[in-house]
Amino acid sequence: MSDAVRRPGPAALNTSVPNAARMADYFLGGKDNFAADREAAERVLAVAPEIRTMAQEAHAFLGRVVRYLVEQDMRQFVVLGSGLPTRRNVHQVAQEIAPETRVAYVATDPVVLSHARAMLATDARTTVVEGDVLHPRELLTDPGLRSLIDLEEPVAVLILSALQFIPDEDDPHKNVAVLREAVPVGSHFAIGHVVFDTRPEAAGPLVDIYRQVLGRHEDASRTSDQVLRFFDGLELVEPGLVYIRHWRPDNPLTTQGRDRTWSMGGIGRKTEG
Known about the structure:
The chain has 273 residues and is of the alpha/beta class. The protein is built from ten helices and eight strands.
């Protein structure tokens, strides 16, 4: 898929078709989902019951990532594939520490866009933009984004769930690189991705379910080495690309004796122009 092809608008809401964002909401115990989403989510849980724990860990990882980035003086965030609004969103975590922080949420799902715009309507330091990681040049020139985010200053780009649904045929590595080249030195990229290194037997069944949900035929699953490529051109922050429960845990003791999970994540810093 190329930036030469205009990004399609958000699809009309169809509650009879499962949706990945609403399935994620269900895994977190949310209420913004429909029967089709719950049925598909239960099929996922039948293959890998630990997915519910992984969703909770991913949300906790998001909080730790945002706190770290604010401590590194990041005051601008672009959140790609932001998903449905939940408790403790990026702007809430960041603005508790630095109230001047500005956050742009980027999504294509009509439910996500509607909920986020309603929730953030009165917050002048946040915005919601229609877009995705596959159309970086359109995103970077979007008036809504540019009205809040100054691309001459360092920015934190968060892509914590979207990439795991994008097959290589859509060139996600290339599109992340376009974003990397467009932001100044000092910017950070936080990336999360499910991997199947320790759970290869789950890959086939889960890929099949999400193929049906997304209406795609390609396989978007990746190993940790393939995910690491998203950090090309960036300096990885310690502890590097690791399983997310081990990324700067608030209490290292809580990482012991937990159910096996297999989401990885990390932060890379742009150090050269």
